[in-house]
């Protein structure tokens, strides 16, 4: 065993400090990582689906508002505006669904803000919330493309 010595590892004090949880740079790195993670999560939560918005607008703008509600369900909120138009908040129907023996609420919904003119026709329809659908990433797209 001649010539074999015990191996030693020397650490520089600054490297040890940078890796310790008490280090200011470790806290900054953790904050940067958390911000990045939240940024990626926020992209999917607050995403707008341009295709779904285009399909919705093409399908309902100009339609009598009563026809929309007859076809897709009753509004959740109705607010007359000073100019004579009416703003509606509409949420797709929430039904029960079986999932492997569990019965619960189907929270795959589409929420839309509708503005109807004095003549009762839809001027604008804007998607406020678009949950993942049954077969795609957009419940609104599934609802309005299919009809």
- The tally of structural domains comes to 2
- The secondary-structure element order is HHHHEEEEEEH
Structural Rg: 27 Å
CATH class of the largest domain: Alpha Beta
Mean pLDDT: 76
Kindly identify the CATH topology of the largest domain. Beta-lactamase Inhibitory Protein, Chain:B, domain 1
What keywords describe this structure?
147 residues; alpha+beta; Beta-lactamase Inhibitory Protein, Chain:B, domain 1; 2 domains; two-stranded antiparallel ribbon; 5 helices; 38% helix
Compact summary:
The chain is an alpha+beta fold and 147 residues long. Helix content is 38%, strand content 23%.
Helix/strand layout:
Layout: H1 13-19, H2 24-45, H3 50-60, H4 65-72, E1 77-80, E2 86-91, E3 96-99, E4 102-105, E5 110-116, E6 122-130, H5 139-146
Helix pairs in contact: 3-5
Summarize the structure in words.
This protein is α+β, with helices and mostly antiparallel strands. The chain has 2 domains: 1-46, no CATH class; 49-146, 2-Layer Sandwich (Beta-lactamase Inhibitory Protein, Chain:B, domain 1), CATH 3.30.1450. It is 38% helix and 23% strand. The protein is built from 5 helices and 6 strands, in the order H-H-H-H-E-E-E-E-E-E-H. It has helices spanning 13-19, 24-45, 50-60, 65-72, 139-146; strands at 77-80, 86-91, 96-99, 102-105, 110-116, 122-130. Strands 1-2-5-6 form a 4-stranded antiparallel beta sheet. Strand 3 and strand 4 form a beta hairpin. The longest helix has 22 residues, at 24-45. It is elongated. The termini are far apart. The relative contact order is 0.15. The model is unreliable at 40-47 (pLDDT under 50).
């Amino acid at each position: 065993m001649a010539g074999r010595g015990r191996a030693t590892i020397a650490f520089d004090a600054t490297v040890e400090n940078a890796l310790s949880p008490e280090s200011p740079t470790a806290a900054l790195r953790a904050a940067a990582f958390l911000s990045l993670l939240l940024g990626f999560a926020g992209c999917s939560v607050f995403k707008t689906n341009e295709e779904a918005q285009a399909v919705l607008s093409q399908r309902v703008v100009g339609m009598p508002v009563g026809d929309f509600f007859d076809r897709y369900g009753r509004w959740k909120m109705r607010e007359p505006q000073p100019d004579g138009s009416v703003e509606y908040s509409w949420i797709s129907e929430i039904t029960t669904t079986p999932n492997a023996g569990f019965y619960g609420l189907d929270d795959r919904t589409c929420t839309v803000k509708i503005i109807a003119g004095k003549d009762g026709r839809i001027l604008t329809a804007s998607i406020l919330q678009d949950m993942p659908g049954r077969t795609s990433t957009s419940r609104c797209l599934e609802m309005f493309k299919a009809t």
